[in-house]
Amino acid sequence: MPRLNPEYFRPFLRAARRIFYSLLFLTVAGCASYGEINNAEMDTIDVEGGYSIREWRENHDIGDISLVLTFSGGGTRAAAMAYGVLEELRDTEFKSNGVSKRLLDEVDDISSVSGGSFTAAFYGLHGDGIFDTFEDDFLRLDMDTPLTRSLINPLHWFTSKGRTERTIEYYEKTLFHGATYADMMQPGRPMIIINASDLAYGVRFSFVQDYFNFLCSDLGSFPVARATAASSAVPILFNPVVVENFDTCGDYALAWPEDVEERAQQDPEYAMLYSGLKSYEDKSQRKYIHFVDGGITDNMGLRALYDVISLAGGPHAFFRKVENTALRHLVIVSVNASTNPVTDMDGTNKQPSITDAVNAMSGVQLHRYNTATLELVKSQVGLWGEALSASGKKIGVHLIQVTFEDVDEPNLKLFLNKIPTSFNLTDEQVSTLIKTSRSLLRENEDFQNLLTEIHNEQ
Fold first, then answer.
1. What's the whole-model pTM score?
2. Do residues 283 and 245 make contact, with C-beta atoms less than 8 angstroms apart?
3. What pLDDT score was predicted for residue 101?
4. Cα 83 → chain centroid
5. Where in 271-428 does DSSP place strands (E)?
6. Nearest-10 crossing angle of helices 427-442, 410-417
7. In whole angstroms, what is the distance from residue 260 CA to residue 252 CA?
C-alpha cells in the first residue's frame, strides 16, 4: 500500500481547525453571561470619608515636592515599564533641609489604566513590598495561558459566568488575595487612581470614592482585583465588569464645583466629563454600569488625572492649602508604554489574528490619541503652575515623559517595539523593559533639570 503524503491532509486539517474555533466562538458568544455585582450600597453619602480625593488631601502632607505618576496601558509591557520607573525613583535620592530622602517617597498620586493598573494597585497595597514579589507574582508569570485554557474548557461553555469573572478569580488567587480598597488606606502610601471606561457612555471613570458617590456605593469594600480587571478588560476579549447604580441615597445632590455650568459651556472636554458623570443620576435608566478597558478613553492615565483635578475645582482646590505648605514643585511623570511596531499586516490580504488586532489597537491606532492627550496636558501644565502660584508662592510644574520614542539605540528600539500587548512576556523582554524604563527616566533632560533645581535650593 503506498504511503500517503501528510502534506495532502494539511489543508483539510487547517480548515477543520478554523471550523472548530468558529463554532467554539459562536457557542461561547451565544451563551448569556452575567456580570457579578460586587459593589455595596450606601444609605447616605459621606463626602469627607472613604478612599476619596478630598479625604486624602485633607490628611496627607504634600511636602515640598508633589510627584504624580501616570501609568499607561499595554499589558505586561506597561506594567514592567511602570515597575522600572518605581525602582529608579526608589534609588534616586535628594536632600531636603540636610536630610536625605528618596524621590519615591514624594509620590502623592498614581493615575493608571489597563496594564499599568496592576503595578499601581500592587504598590498601593504593598508599598516597598512590591520590590520583593511583584516580578515573580506578575511580571514574569504567564497570565495568558491559564485564562485561555479556561475559555476553551467545555465545562465552562454553558455557565453564566463570563471570562472576566474567571479572570478576576485568577487575579485574586495569584496577586490580590481578597484585598479591597480599605486595604489601600495606609499612611504614607500614594493615592491610587485606577481608571476604566463606561462602555455605554464613553465616560472615563476613576475608582475613587468621589466617583463611587455618583453610584451611591461604598468603594472601601470593593475588591481591588475587580478594579484592575475593569481597567484592563479589552472589549470582545473580555466581558465588562458590572456595578450597580444604587438609588438608596435619597435626594442627595452631589457637590459640583460652583462654576461647573459655566466651565461646561466654555470647555468641551469638561462638558463631556460633566454630562457623563451627571448621567449616573438617572437611576432607572442607568441601573447597571458596564466598565471596560480604561485605554479606550485614555490610554495614558493623563486625561483621567485632568478629569480628577477639574472635578475637584482646579489645581488649587486639588492641592488643598498650598499656600500653607512647603510645596515648591509639582512633578508629573508620564510612563507611556505604547509602541510603534513594524507590521507586515498590510503586505497580505490574510485576516490579522486577534493578537495582531489587539496590538494594533494598543499601539498604532492609539498613537494619535496619545499625541492629542499630551498636547492637552501640556497646554494645561502652565495654567496649573499659574494657579498654584496665585498666592504669591512660586510653584514649578514639570512634565516628564518616559517613552520608547526617546530610545536612541536602533536595535534596542526595534526590540522594544516588537514586544506585544499581552500578559505573557519572556524573561528577556521583562528585564529589558525594566532596565530601559529606568535609564529613560534617569537620562531624561527634564528629570535631570528637576534634580538640579532641587539641589540648588538646598
1. 0.87
2. yes
3. 92
4. 13
5. 288-292, 329-336, 396-403
6. 120
7. 18
Q: State residue 262's pLDDT score.
A: 79
Q: Which three cell numbers stand for residue 376?
A: 492637552
Dmax (CA) for the chain in angstroms is: 96
120, 82 in Cβ contact below 8 A?
yes
Question: What is the rounded CA–CA span in Å between residue 211 and residue 251?
Answer: 17
Low-confidence ranges of the chain (pLDDT < 50): 1-4, 6, 8-9, 12, 19-30, 157
H helices, E strands: number in the chain: 18, 12
In whole angstroms, what separates CA 11 from the centre of its chain?
43
Backbone angles phi and psi of 449, in degrees to 5? -65, -40
Distances (CA, A) of 216 to 252, 280, 409, 457: 10, 10, 51, 46
Tell which phi-psi region holds residue 178, choosing left (phi > 0), alpha (psi between -120 and 50) or beta.
Answer: left
Q: What is the DSSP string of 135-162?
A: IIIIITS--HHHHHHHHH-GGGTTSS--
Which helix (H) or strand (E) segment holds residue 94: the answer is strand 93-96
Per the CB < 8 A criterion, the answer to whether 450 and 330 are in contact is: no
Give the cell for residue 86: 518605581
Task: List the alpha helices (DSSP H) in 53-114.
Answer: 53-59, 75-90
Q: What is the DSSP letter of 33?
A: -
Checking DSSP bridges between strand 65-71 and strand 329-336, what pairing results, if any?
parallel
CA 351, CA 429: separation in Å to the nearest integer?
Answer: 27
- Cβ atoms of residues 437 and 402 within 8 Å: yes
Cα torsion 44, 47, 51, 55: sign:
negative
Cα separation, 293 vs 314, in Å, equals 26
Helix crossing, 75-90 with 427-442: angle to 10°?
A: 50
3-state secondary structure 3-20: CCCHHHCHHHHHHHHHHH
Q: Give the Cβ contact number of residue 118 at 10 Å.
A: 33
pLDDT of residue 8: 45
